[in-house]
## 1
Amino acid sequence: MKKILFLLFSLFMVKANAQISLSTDTFNRLARDYVKLGLSIGQYDSDFVDAYYGPDSLKPVLAKANVFPKDSLIKAVKQLQKKLASYLQKGSDEVLMGRAFWMKAQLTAFDQRIRIFSDEYSSFDKETKALFGVVVPRYKKEDYQRWLNELNRILPGSGTANYKFEALVDKFSIPGLKVDTLFKTAIQLSRNQTLKHLKLPADESFDLEYVKGKPWSGYNWYKGNFHSLIQLNTDVKILIERAIDVASHESYPGHHVYNTLLEQHLYKEKGWVEISLYPLFSPQSLIAEGTANYGIELVFPGDEKLRFAKEVLLPLAGMDTTGITTYFKALELKSKLNFVRNDVARGLLDGTMKTEVAQNWLIRYGLYNNESAKKSIDFIRKYRSYVINYNYGLQLVRNYVERTMGNDKSIEHRWQVFATLLSNQFTSTDLLP
Ligand SMILES: [Zn+2]
């Protein structure tokens, strides 16, 4: 009798295991369909795929059609979302549920981006919600004016805030010949700091390239196998803080590290193929940009950035350090003004703000100069509401880390919480309180 019971029990276990593996297998098929779909959209929309390091077998086999197949792509998105819904029901396997939830949010973004690519637009707020999973706060002229007044009070000299700020900025523009040395030094320090707290694959690496004529200041092209191509744009003058911020944002512990850890832990270790595709216009970018900006604060906590600029970078470039403390204080106060770019993007995309007015807002409230304001508007024309990921993404990540840390506010714990963000599938909802 015991033997029979044992046999029955074993049979039951085999069946139960088979069911689990069947459902994981089925899910992995959906994950492959998700990747195939994303790569198909990318055949038409050249900005769609930011990185792909999965198997070649998932790449489109057919040449792209003459006309963008909007309707059939939207239909494919809906069908896939419907299939994923069965994994979102109560009692489903927890791991698969998490993956399904993540993929569903990513697919909502696919749908929105397909429409945008076909010139079908929603309001700015609906667009950010669909693409990145969030609606950003709206600020008024008066808010910016108040923050600007705060900043103006600490700026030396006389004249308008713009004039005084620009005079300060001019002192910290890096001479062209020194740019490479300073970038490399900043990346080196960011890498050393990151390696003290995070474990990265031994063979991770990057190449650095200088480019011109781009709407962005830096870009990380993740190539897979823990390798990145980092491009830095030398079109506009490079300021001392940008050398530090862009270096860290694109490399360590920014985009290069984020992609590396996802590939290592989710793709190579767990075989989650969906992560091998990074669609640029998706909630993943809110996490990517938010963590890349937050990472700068981790590498340079407190006054460390000021100290690094004053004691290392400026002397290395043979530049005068007078006024650097005030300059960094001004930059800190100016960070609130960065939100003006969201409101300008909203105005431009909703058609409630003319280009000229948008440019004036950026100059007046964001302390841009003519050149950088134009560049910023070019960026908005190309990447649209993507701008929100930098400032709002940073705010969400910073708040998430603070909240999750609890009472242990040590640097080490901060890095640990940060590392979980870089090594798991997070959605925008996960970041919200
Ligand atoms: Zn970025």
Note: Strands lie at 49-52, 205-211, 218-224, 227-233, 277-279.
## 2
Amino acid sequence: MFDFDTVIDRKNTFSLKYDFNESRGYSPDTLPFWIADMDFKTAPCITETLAKAVAHGIFGYSDADDSYFEAVHHWFRQNFRWEVKQDWLVKTSGVVPALHAAVRAFTKPDDAVLIQPPVYQCFASAIETTGRRVVKSPLIRRGKKYSMNDFDDIERKIVENNVKLSLLCSPQNPTGRVWTREELSQYSAICRRHHVRIVVDEIHCDFTYPGYTHTAFGTLGEEDAMNAVICTAPTKTFNISGLQDANIWIPNPAMREAFRKELIASGAIHLNLMGLIAGRAAYLGGKPWLDALKEYLLRNLNYVRSFLNANLPYIKLVEPEGTYLLWLDFRYYGLTDAALELKLRNDAHLWVNMGNIFGSEGSGYVRLNIACPRSTLEKGMNRLYEAFKSQKPSSNPYFL
Ligand SMILES: Cc1ncc(COP(=O)(O)O)c(C=O)c1O
């Protein structure tokens, strides 16, 4: 019903993924598997609505109205049994601006903010660029899976550093974990006990693989929700990141006011009209497209797993529970991050995210975006094979 196989030329479309190879030091023929957008056309219900808006021809200042809220409300009720309220909603142009605004709103310069690396790199930059301090309670890899650090460690880090705020990625980028209700509840309880507010980034919530369910933080309990800023967006799900539309839910009125004040202070008060139009259309009519997309992504995941097992057994897939980002463990080769990056860039002609951008805990890993047509993914995996087929595993793996 939907075509995810056709390779669409994205060159000369202002695409960060496709139009900046040479200016960022990659050869022109490099294949990109880094930034988290997709090489698929968005849902037809979205492009059709946008086409009507373009034909209308007036693109003035805009705001979300009741019809926008109702579409989003419908989505969260239908997919996550989460009843959002209209007055909780603060609109922003993205989740990243919301992370920054929340850090400024709920902490002072030099205050400590907790993160669990390896984690989306904008968490650390939202803390550091605003003059706050990063405190880490790293995730722990147990066998094939990551989990949160011991809850004792989390609590000790909070107390010892007088942590004021924590940033939580749920589902987790880059490890692909989908946190269970119990994990989220325990984490939330520790934070509440020490008056640590939580910013939860749920931008990947629509991408879970069969057998895993995303728990909306807002469904944990009232006390949890009253301590949280919950960041959601239709952009990742529907491949409309360039249209900049995010929905930030803040049930606690005092926190909402403080957050809003920061947005106003930074001048970020206007929204993208096309983002609103696309977001509403997505949440009203995009479910069949998303379901088909998720089936396609699952087949891509299965393909990569089989390919690695058969051809590159020293590259280990960390089995994802959600997201379209794969976390690949290259540590058996014993290469430094710099050497690994050079090999991927110069020998394989692949542009991926090196794991250490998500924190030093990601050293030796690579993040690979599989949201592309199968033929593109096959090309990428074959290039990986050619570059690594003669690479011997280290007898003394550097990172193990
Ligand atoms: C966890 C996470 N949060 C936020 C973003 C980006 O959010 P936005 O484009 O809404 O600023 C990304 C993009 O990859 C992400 O992975």
Note: The longest strand covers residues 163-169.
